[in-house]
Design brief:
The chain is an alpha/beta fold. The chain has helices at about 5-10, 60-80, 90-95, 100-110, 120-130, 170-180, 185-200, 205-210, 220-230, 240-250, 270-285, 300-310, 315-325, 330-350, 355-370, 380-390, 400-410, 415-420, 425-445, 475-490, and strands at about 15-20, 25-35, 35-45, 85-90, 115, 140-145, 150-160, 160-170, 215-220, 240, 290-295, 455-460, 465-470, 495-500. The protein folds into three domains: about 5-120, ATPase, nucleotide binding domain (Nucleotidyltransferase, domain 5); about 135-295, Nucleotidyltransferase, domain 5; about 315-450, Hypothetical protein af1432, CATH 1.10.3210. Helix 2 packs parallel to helix 4 and helix 9 (about 220-230) crosses helix 11 (about 270-285).
C-alpha cells in the first residue's frame, strides 16, 4: 500500500473510538484510509470508575463528575463530527453499575453522541479484532488475555476469527480495592487476590485447555506493565519464572504505593500488585509457559468494527443470519417483512424524530420476529424475545440487544408496556413507535403470496392514518379484521389508528 503524503492524509475521513473503561477513559482518533485506520491522536485519563461503585453497586456523584469532567475534554475534539464516524463504548464498571443509565444519559449530553455499554463477550470480540489488526499474524491459533480495571477477557482465535470468548469479573481496580485495602501489601493479601482469580478461572479453564492454542498474547495496562518491567530485566517475553521474581520483589514492600521498578509508570503503581496476582493465576490455571504483549486492544477493535460497518463488512449481519439459521426461521418471509420496513419508516421518520440507526434496528427485529416458533408456535413472540435477550449477539451493544428483544416481544398481541417502562424515559416513546411500525409492517405482509400494498402512513404525534389504494382493503376482509384488532391494542397506549 502506498502511504499518502501529509496533504492526502489530512483529507482522509476522521474516525473516533472512545473507551469508557473501568480504570481509564481513552479516546483514539484516526484517519480512515479505505478499510485501514491510521492513528492520529490518543488521549487517556485515569478515572477509575470501578472505585466509584458503592456497596449497592451505584456510581457515586463524585465518580460520575470525575468521568464527565474527562468527557468534556474529549468533547472538544469531536465537536461537529458525524455520529457515523464515532463510537463510544462502556465496559465492566458500567455493566455492573445499577445506575449506569443516569451516567450514560449525562455522558451523551456532554459528547453529543450515543454511548453503548458492551456485553462482556462483545467486549472480548472487539479486543481480539483490535489486537489482530496490530500484531504479526503467523496463522496459528492464539489465546488473547486482556486484564482490565473491572474484568478480564479471554479469546481463542485464528486469523481474524474468534472461536471462544469469555469475560470474567476480575480486574486490577476492583481487586486492588477488595484485596489490598488502604494500599496494605502483604503475602496474605496477595494470596487472597491470587486464589480469588483462580476460583474465577475454574469456570473456563477446562474448555479453554481443550480448545488449545499455539501462541499467547496479552494486552492492556497490567500486562504492559509486567512486560515493560521484565524487559528491563532482560526477558524477551512474560514467563512464569519472571512473574515469580516480580512477586518476590513486590512483597518486599509494605504498601502498594511504595512499589517501584524500572519500566513501571507512576500511574500504574497502585494497581500493579493486583494485576500481577491476576496474571499469575491465569498462567497457573491455563498452564501458560510464555506470553507476548500487543498494544492493540479494545479501542482499535472498536474503530475497525466501525470502519467495517461503513464498508458493509458488518458482523451484525452475520450475527442475525446465524440466529435465523440456528432457529430455522422462515427466511423468505422474514426478509420480505424486513424489506418492507424501510418504506413505511421513511414516511414517518421526520414527524416521529427517528434516525437511520432506528431503521436498521427495526429491520433486524423484522428478520428475527418469528425465531421463537422453533420452540413453539404458542406465545412464540415471548420465546423469540427470550432467545434474543439471552444470546451472544456480536456487534450489538447491551442496550441494542435489549431493544431487539423488546421489539420481538411486542410485535403481536398486547403491547408490553411494562417492558418498555424498563427503558430510560427518553427512549420509551422512540421504542414504542418502532414497535408500532413493526406491527403495522407485519400486518401488511401477512398475505404471503400477495404484493405488499401501496400504502401511505401519515402521523401526527399519537394520531396515525393508513391510506390504501381504492378498494384494496375491502377485498381483504382478513387484513381488515386484523387492523381492527390492532386499533384496539393501540388504543391502550393512547395511540389512535385510522385507515381508509
Amino acid at each position: 500500500m502506498i502511504t499518502p503524503d501529509v496533504t492526502d492524509a489530512e483529507s482522509l475521513p476522521l474516525v473516533v473510538a472512545i473507551d469508557l473503561g473501568s480504570n481509564s477513559f481513552h479516546m483514539l482518533l484516526a484517519r480512515q484510509d479505505h478499510n485501514e485506520i491510521r492513528p492520529v491522536k490518543h488521549l487517556s485519563k485515569k478515572v477509575q470508575l470501578s472505585t466509584g461503585l458503592d456497596e449497592r453497586c451505584l456510581l457515586t456523584d463524585e465518580a460520575m463528575e470525575l468521568g464527565l469532567s474527562c468527557l468534556r475534554e474529549f468533547a472538544e475534539y469531536i465537536d461537529g463530527m458525524a455520529s457515523s464516524n464515532i463510537r463510544i463504548v462502556g465496559t465492566s464498571a458500567l455493566r455492573k453499575a445499577r445506575n449506569s443509565d443516569i451516567f450514560v444519559r449525562l455522558a451523551e449530553q456532554e459528547l453529543g453522541h450515543r454511548v453503548d455499554i458492551l456485553a462482556g463477550r462483545e467486549e472480548a470480540r472487539l479486543i481480539y479484532l483490535g489486537l489482530v489488526q496490530t500484531c504479526f499474524d503467523d496463522g496459528e491459533r492464539r489465546l488473547v488475555v486482556d486484564i482490565g480495571g473491572g474484568s478480564t477477557e479471554f479469546i481463542i482465535g485464528q486469523r481474524f476469527e474468534s472461536c471462544l470468548l469469555e469475560s470474567l469479573h476480575m480486574g486490577c481496580v476492583t481487586y486492588t480495592r477488595q484485596y489490598f485495602p488502604h494500599g496494605s501489601l502483604s503475602n496474605q493479601h496477595f494470596r487472597k487476590a491470587y486464589y480469588s482469580a483462580r476460583r474465577e478461572m475454574m469456570s473456563i479453564e477446562k474448555a479453554y485447555r481443550s480448545e488449545g492454542w499455539v501462541n499467547v498474547i496479552g494486552s492492556s495496562g497490567s500486562v504492559k506493565s509486567v512486560h515493560n518491567i521484565l524487559g528491563e530485566r532482560g526477558f524477551d517475553r512474560i514467563t512464569l519464572d519472571g512473574l515469580k521474581q516480580l512477586k518476590s520483589d513486590v512483597l518486599t514492600f509494605q504498601n502498594v504505593e511504595e512499589v517501584k521498578f524500572p519500566g513501571l509508570k507512576s500511574e500504574r503503581v497502585a494497581l500493579f500488585p493486583a494485576g500481577l496476582a491476576i496474571l499469575m493465576a491465569i498462567f497457573d490455571s491455563l498452564e501458560i509457559d510464555a506470553m507476548d504483549y500487543s498494544a492493540g486492544a479494545l479501542r482499535e477493535g472498536v474503530l475497525y468494527d466501525l470502519v467495517g460497518r461503513q464498508s458493509h463488512e458488518d458482523v451484525r449481519e452475520r450475527t442475525i443470519h446465524a440466529l435465523m439459521t440456528r432457529h430455522h426461521a422462515d427466511e423468505e418471509r422474514a426478509r420480505r417483512v424486513s424489506k418492507q420496513v424501510e418504506p413505511l419508516f421513511k414516511q414517518v421518520a421526520d414527524d416521529w424524530k427517528l434516525i437511520e440507526a432506528d431503521c436498521r434496528l427495526l429491520q433486524d427485529a423484522a428478520l428475527l420476529h418469528e425465531i421463537g416458533m422453533n420452540i413453539s408456535d404458542v406465545q412464540f413472540h415471548r420465546h423469540g424475545a427470550y432467545i434474543i435477550q439471552n444470546s451472544d449477539l456480536f456487534g450489538f451493544s447491551r442496550y441494542e440487544q435489549q431493544q431487539l428483544a423488546i421489539l420481538v416481544r411486542g410485535h403481536r398481541r398486547t403491547l408490553p408496556l411494562q417492558l418498555l417502562c424498563q427503558l430510560p424515559e427518553m427512549k420509551f416513546t422512540q421504542q414504542l413507535r418502532l414497535m408500532i411500525l413493526l406491527r403495522l409492517t407485519i400486518l401488511l405482509s401477512q398475505i404471503r403470496t400477495d404484493r405488499f400494498p401501496d400504502v401511505k402512513l401519515q402521523v401526527k404525534e399519537r394520531q396515525m392514518k393508513l391510506i390504501f389504494s381504492e378498494g384494496w382493503l375491502d377485498k381483504r376482509p382478513l387484513v381488515k379484521a386484523s387492523f381492527e384488532h390492532e386499533r384496539e391494542y393501540l388504543e391502550r397506549t393512547d395511540y389512535r389508528l385510522t385507515y381508509i
